């Protein structure tokens, strides 16, 4: 009598699913395997491929502050993030998660300020992690504080009201009197035209210390929930970005003024996170590499955060325990001058990676922005292929990035990983439940 073939059940879920590893190369070390499908080990975490679902706010969490589910992820997020896991992404970012109640962009944002293992915020994150792990994907959280851009409405509510932005009143779960930033007052409203945003008040030094601790506590909770990778959101004009820029940070204490003072909060946050999470957990930092104000009158007046500042930040990264710089841009000032073209942000990533390698450092770089095609993504990683471990990257030839982050293309084409494998002729695993439908 023949023995029936055993299907290995996933050990990550309390229910039955065969353990999957879609999007993993069948022959990861084979010279013909494209760079996109080469695993990458960062500290104790190995990503099966170099394709990352970039963080994307879905504004789909409970907004009622009295509900135990406020800020918690839901079945919507299981379906949304889960299908990227089934469809082979190596690393999946849960959207930006607020580390404090008033750090949400909108009342419907996800959060991780309730650290108890019994909390809905914790349990819902754990559930996402378990599902993604059952499909062989790793999970990242982006720890976030919206600063002066907080207490806005979900973008579709503003659109329905015919406005570019619409602030959230207390009656819909907003917190108009507790919108904060490095500097306060009407001149620091993110966009003072119309009724889009609230007037921020300046954080006290004590409150800054609380923000720092909130990042650390959320990081620690995320790791307890099984999250593999942490990212500090230092981009897009949110709180940390507001501190970094001399345009938005007009403080005269130890958190404002010089480059050292303006970077203090992010340095303290990284240090506080590293102190409470295992040394094997990778830590990423997303920055706006430039706020695109170089030629603007406002920059002549106060200076701005441009590529020179980002280059100045680089030597600090490894000593802060930051493993990867996720290179985004803009979003901190409405006078930003963007010249939109495909390589707009990718070129910034290339420039920063080059400087990191020239300094003999091994900090990894993520490229994001307008990546849509398999060949394009593969091209960005050329030269980073032999990097199977963080220390090997130094020896490799010049690449633009070590990981590619895609956002909108995953919304348009959730099966992008499998399409990319097909386009590049890569042999990858497929989820067992899909075998009858697709072969690569
Ligand atoms: C719906 C949506 C939500 C987003 N939310 C976030 C977020 O939570 N955190 C963040 O850093 N970037 C966010 N972004 C920016 C993306 O992560 C990404 O950087 C940007 O869309 C450029 O990449 P793309 O051209 O591949 O879309 C969001 C983008 C979209 C389209």
Put the structure in a nutshell.
This protein is α/β, with parallel strands linked by helices. Helix content is 30%, strand content 12%.
Characterization of the model:
The chain has one domain: Aldolase class I (TIM Barrel, Alpha-Beta Barrel), CATH 3.20.20. Helix content is 30%, strand content 12%. It is built from 13 helices and twelve strands. It has helices at residues 75-86, 120-134, 155-160, 205-224, 239-244, 259-262, 264-276, 297-302, 307-319, 346-358, 374-381, 408-412, 416-424, and strands at residues 40-42, 45-47, 51-53, 91-98, 138-144, 180-181, 201-202, 229-234, 283-288, 324-328, 364-368, 403-406. The strands form three sheets. Strands 3-4-5-8-9-10-11-12 form an eight-stranded parallel β-barrel, surrounded by six helices. It has a two-stranded antiparallel ribbon with strand order 1-2. α4 packs parallel to α7 (264-276) and α9 crosses α10 (346-358). The longest helix is centred in the middle third of the chain and has 20 residues, at 205-224. The chain binds flavin mononucleotide. Residues 54-57, 95-96, 142, 233, 235-236, 286, 328, 368-371, 406-409 line the site of flavin mononucleotide.
Distance between the termini: 33 Å
In terms of per-residue confidence, which ranges show pLDDT below 50 for 5 or more consecutive residues?
387-391
Sheet of most strands:
8 strands, parallel, barrel
Proportion of residues in helical segments: 25-40%
| Total individual domains | 1
Protein name: FMN-linked oxidoreductase
Pfam families: Oxidored_FMN
InterPro entries: Aldolase_TIM, OxRdtase_FMN_N, YqjM-like
GO molecular function: FMN binding; NADP binding; NADPH dehydrogenase activity
